[in-house]
Input
Amino acid sequence: MAAREATRIALSLPIERSLPRRVEATRAALDALTAAADYGFAEITTAATYEIAVMYRELGGALLRAPRPRGLDALEQEQYALLLEEQAFPFEESAIKAFEANLARLDQGIWNESVQRSAAALTEMVPARYGKHERRDLRYASPG
Output
């Protein structure tokens, strides 16, 4: 519920006022999800880890979609967009790390819906690393 509440806080102008409320709500949700992830059951841990990644990804995306101040010229708009991208980047990196933590659970033999969804998210976010598809030769050469 805390995660849902955090994502409902829209970023609005001036961002300096709305962003701290959103970040604080996100931190509260992350604390609850981290406690759940530490519980020790694979199904709960992977689901909580997936939700942690989604929270980070959503906050980064919200920054990128944040409204732009009116009256900026083209250069100022570009600089403002770059500033938002710089602020969003650490959240996207944290999302990737959390998704990767779930994917690393494959080494423990854990493959469930949350791990699958993490793998799919990584394919979208880091296609150069996770979006590769092996091509196999389907021909069979007989030994004789």
Remarks:
- Residues 74-103 form the longest helix (30 residues).
